[in-house]
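Look over both lines:
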Amino acid sequence: MCDILAISAGHNYTPGQYLPIFAAKGRKNLYGWGIGFYRDDRALVEKSADQAFDGEQVHESFQRLARIIDSRIIVSHLRCHRGGGRHVALNHPFCLPFLNHSWLFVHVGIVEHIEQYSTEREPRLDTEVYPARVFEFLRDKMMSHLEMNPYLSLYDVVQSSIAKLVAAYPGYYNFFLANESVLFAYFNHGQLLLLKESETPGEVLLLTSLDKGLSEKEWLPIRAPESSIGRLLVIAGPEVLYMGDL
């Protein structure tokens, strides 16, 4: 299965340590990579169809980005062969502007039939990979909720949209949805690993689907509940503001 990583900090953060480790530990995913980050509150995405880790070293462009990114929120995706051929358009993250933010989205899992979903809103993501349809569905529902009630909190909007997504298209979900200041993490199978790391000049929070984390430190396993439709985390800076079941 593909792997994903999210980094959230209370300050602009350069992931020179953890992004290359992510590439090395996710080396089984050989069909490309993507990194999303923010600059001046605008989402930027870099992708490649090359392996993130080839031979005994991390891909040169991947390493370069790890050294120069300076962002409070960073998400990355290593793609496995199940996602199709070596086409960079199939790699995550995806980016969409809506609700006065520039949003990033990465997903791993298996969802059937959602490729049939067709959004009526613009812009549309120009790729046939099904996580793009998941992102468009969430965007559409989030906007619809706020059009009906502009006083809803962002958490309520995301939670309601996820509930509608899982009801309409059951499957295995594990995704990160982020704007320039807040990160949402949702999953309904398996686990995520969480680590709060103290670094100069402050703390950072890391969240990954890799089953052993990115270091020998004590990562906190967060497992999907069996009695609900999934678990949702809301993260701002290095803090988990909310963790609960839907």
